[in-house]
Amino acid sequence: MKKNMTRIIIISIIALLSFAKSFGQNQEPITIGQKYIIESKVLSESREYWVYLPSDYDKSIYDYPVMYLLDGQEHFHQITGVVNHMSRLVQRMPRMIIVGIVSNDNDRVRDYTPNPIEILPNGGGADQFIAFLKKELIPKIDNDFRTNDYRLLFGHSLAGVCVNHIFTNYNELFNVYFAADPAIFVDPTITTDLESYISNQDTIKSNYFLSACGLVDSTTIVPNIELSELVESKYSTKVSWDFKFYSNEDHVSMTLKAIYDGLEQLYSDYKIPIDISILLTKRTS
Hints:
285 residues; alpha/beta
């Protein structure tokens, strides 16, 4: 009886080990992006960035637009998911390359603020960071991947301040600007400079999407609402401007809705007809 029990246990262990080995051999990672490092002479430091390529990139001959994400480590997963869903499955926007620029607590204040700020140390390096984008990172992406000339920029919170600064002072660098709940209250010159820039232009070709949330202190909400009202009341014929207010979202939770709504508005006329029977076949086969 004991011998039989021992034999059963040994056979069971062998079977489990064989299954585990077989299961391990069948495992493959699901990859949504690749990490890269660029040695920046402009910033005198190494900078990390993540790249997402459309699922058809290796099989296509197309050149793709590129979306750049400030604070890429915070937004890369959600925005690549949204873009993949909207461009591949529902086909409401073109497929695109996404570049997430990684930041940390030490460099994000420096990189995203154009002027020194009393309440935040190390500020005032935005123009240097933008020089890094313009002279090093964007040319590197254009050289390494099949890109076209259409670029989008997304920034949230303090990074949204940088988005506004680029829109105002380096407008030709991007075609589309997404500023999600930008912390423009930290620097009043952001609003005045933006108004001055728009007022002095005949027309502005780039698109701007501003969003704000309701579940934060009023000092954060009011400047964004006032900025939107100013542009829409005085300069609506000069710039393609859209504003979304999320009354039931907080500073962090609003970002996913903001990018989805912004992309949906931007590509409102973009729609490839879908044969629903094909989708049903794919899901049931």
